[in-house]
Amino acid sequence: MSFFRPPTSGAIKIVRPDPAHDQPPTQTPAKNPARKDSVQRQCRNIMIYGSCKYQDKGCLYYHPPARRSARRNSYFASNLAALNNAPVFVPKFPARIQSQSPAPTPPPPQESPPPPQYPQEPPYEEYMDYDEASSNGYYPDPNAYDAYDHYMTMPVGPVFLRQPLNYHLYSTPMPPSFLANSVDTHFMLPSGDLRTLMQTRSEDLHMAATPGLGLPEEMQGYHSIIPLDNLNSERRKFGNWSSTVYRAINSKDGATYCLRRVENFRMNNQGAFSAIETWSKLRHPGIVSVQEAFTTHAFGDSSLVVAYAYHPLAKTLYETHLKPSGHGRTSLPERTLWSYIVQLATAVKYVHDAGQALRMVDASKILVTGKHRLRVSSCGIVDVLMHDSVQMHTQQDMHALQQEDLTMFGRLVFALCSGQALGWSGGNFQKTIELMGRVYSPEVKAVALFLINKGAPHKNINQVMDIISTRVAAEMADALTATDILENELMSELENARLVRLLCKLGFINERPEFARDERWSETGDRYIIKLFRDHVFHQVDEMGNPNVNLGHVLASLNKLDVGTEEKLMLTARDEQSCLVVNYRQVKACVESAFDELARPPNAATGGYR
Ligand SMILES: Nc1ncnc2c1ncn2[C@@H]1O[C@H](COP(=O)(O)OP(=O)(O)OP(=O)(O)O)[C@@H](O)[C@H]1O
Q1: CATH number at residue 306
Q2: d(Cα 146, Cα 47) in Å, to the nearest integer?
Q3: DSSP character for 13?
Q4: Is there a single domain that holds both residue 549 and residue 419?
Q5: Long-range CB contacts for residues 186-191, cutoff 8 Å, separation at least 24
Q6: 364 annotated to bind ligand
């Protein structure tokens, strides 16, 4: 009979009954005097089945005179909760296996076990944790228990119990009803759409460069340069300069950046980059962060390149709302309009409070980077381009530029209300004012007029904030709701990350072909338990021998392993000759120690591990 007891786990092995042991254990008390108190303990067969077939054949335990069915039912009723938490045990000797593999040689008739007293009874497999058993004084000799085994009948078919997943580390997402508008909130897409969006963003980040575009292979530490503009269309203008936007990967940090290149730029004064230095320190959710700037001849000309944070799948505000589509113009919903106004106002306030000016508040330079999320892009570039012509000498100069920011902001509000980029100019102005009065609440017109009012030379962003203050509250509530939803989404991702780490560890350990010259490393010691655990999780079969691909069972088992619960489970050897009763805490300890052993640096003296 095979025998195994892991030195570290404290699990107790249960062996398949040997026919020799199926005889009533008449010799056992003499062999093991420590069990003298057994007569005080009620026989488990009585508790489970209401009767014991060995009652008159030497069974040591107490057999009270009781009606079988009544006792048995009461046992099951009282232990229902325990049974629900019992580990699922799936025996591996179903019909298919029997038909495919040669049947084991039946024991000689005289040695076969006596027929079960109650043929309808489910199998009785006694198992007991080693700690519990030894603390009760039942097994002073760890090798003596096998004489104790009662006859085990094999189950007719497996019973799959639902595994509750309510462990303290298993995240329970907030009920949707607690999250205001969780289906479709102002800033958040419904969960499924959000995941699709994340996936497409990830694909965008991994998109390979199209060959044959004549772009530099490498430039100032950036590689994999891909144009975001259509290079064949008319070259876009940035003020008086032609500009092109690229996506590139920085070899220093491996991150993706957006590079805005201004063609044919001649740098006369290195001091022009001081503005970039200032901008690279400004961080705000309404601004595309500035990384660095440099000049290069890599494109065949003298170009200025400013590197910004890259926002996958970002579109400009112009592309999103103002580009003529041929389907007529649709008015922006008022909630969206206010959200844009509030976001832009907070970005402008941050920049003005930092003593800077945006200098470019234009629909073609504002990015929509998520649902209703705006970020002002291209910051700092005008400062470099205009460095020689507009020198910042006084506070008044900056104030004038900030006033200009507010005017551009006002024009943008007119453009968004009218659905036309030039909705603020010439003959469009009056039409837009009328449309505003018809479609939007009076505050929209009030703030737009305030922003473009040239007769108020001392207007500032704080006054704008006062005008829109009532709208800021709604924006704040929506933004906080978005963080709640995202936290909730993150909880489930956290689970995934934990389980993937666990699976990686199991993968490293299980069936490792060689380790430190010990070919059986993954088959012995703690690793043997891990191997049996892997079988328990992934290799269960149903009563017909078909693979049981119950993902719920896998997730439940891995979550319990991750947590290391005290719940016990029975692991069965592949030859079904032995079982181990362990709890998840013990399996977790085995995984940790086996992985630590693998991860330990090699021993220089031996050239191997350990
Ligand atoms: N930081 C960024 N992250 C991701 N995409 C960006 C970023 N900046 C710009 N883009 C994208 O690059 C493309 C080109 O940007 P660009 O600013 O040139 O817009 P445009 O509409 O072509 O304006 P212009 O007419 O002034 O060139 C746009 O689709 C824009 O969404």
Answers
A1: 1.10.510.10
A2: 21
A3: E
A4: no
A5: 186/335, 186/339, 186/371, 186/372, 186/478, 186/481, 186/482, 187/370, 187/371, 187/372, 187/373, 187/478, 187/479, 187/481, 187/482, 188/371, 188/481, 188/482, 188/485, 188/486, 189/371, 191/489
A6: yes
Task: Give domain status of residue 606, yes or no.
Answer: no
pLDDT band with cut points at 50, 70 and 90 for residue 245 = very high
Residue 228 alpha carbon to ligand 1 centre in Å? 7
Asked whether residue 530 falls in the same domain as residue 436, the answer is no
Structural domain count, the chain: 2
Q: Are residues 539 and 459 in the same domain?
A: no
The residue whose C-alpha atom lies closest to atom 31 belonging to ligand 1 is: 315
**Has residue 154 been placed in a domain?**
yes
326 and 430: one domain?
A: yes
Q: Pull the structure tokens for residue 417.
A: 């209300």
Tell me the pLDDT tens digit for each residue of 182-231: 567 899 988 778 888 888 898 899 888 778 888 999 999 999 999 998 66
pLDDT at 144 over 60: no
Q: What is the pLDDT of residue 345?
A: 98
- Strand, coil or helix: 458: coil
Last residue of a domain, one of 399, 433, 467: 467
Phi/psi of residue 172, nearest 5 degrees: -110, 110
Residues 531 and 420 in one domain: no
Give 239-301 as a DSSP string.
TTEEEEEEEEEETTT--EEEEEEETT-----GGGGHHHHHHTT---TTBPPEEEEEEE-TTSS
Are 463 and 515 within one domain? no
* 528 CA → ligand 1 middle, Å: 57
Q: Ligand 1 atom closest to Cα of 316?
A: 31
- More confident: 510 or 51: 510
Using an 8 Å Cβ cutoff, are 170 and 164 in contact?
no
Element (H, E) at 164: none
Q: Are residues 429 and 515 in the same domain?
A: no
Whether 38 has a pLDDT exceeding 50, the answer reads no
Dihedral angle sign, alpha carbons of residues 160, 126, 555, 530: negative
- For ligand 1, say whether the CB of 461 is within 6 Å of any of its atoms: no
CA distance 410 to 425: 11
- Provide the CATH number for the domain around residue 124: 1.10.287.3700
Q: Is residue 238 part of a domain?
A: yes
Radius of gyration of the chain (CA): 37
Confidence category of residue 340, pLDDT binned at 50, 70, 90: very high
> Same structural domain for residues 374 and 446?
yes
Q: Please choose, from the candidates 399, 402, 409, the residue with its C-alpha nearest in 3D space to the C-alpha of residue 448.
A: 409
The 10s digit of each residue's pLDDT in 1-24 is 343 333 444 445 555 545 444 444
Q: Note down the domain range covering 350.
A: 207-467
pLDDT in tens, 466-508: 999 999 999 999 999 999 988 888 877 766 778 888 999 999 8
| CB 318 less than 6 A from any atom of ligand 1 | yes
Q: What residue's CA is closest to ligand 1, atom 2?
A: 310
> Would you say residue 431 has pLDDT above 60?
yes
Distance from Cα 315 to the centre of ligand 1, integer Å: 7
Would you place residue 130 in the very low, low, confident or very high pLDDT band (cuts 50, 70, 90)? very low
| Domain end marker among 433, 467, 501 | 467
Does ligand 1 lie within 6 Å of residue 246's CB atom? no
Residue 522 annotated as part of some ligand binding site? no
Whether 450 is covered by a domain: the verdict is yes
* Cα dihedral across residues 172, 586, 581, 158: positive or negative: positive
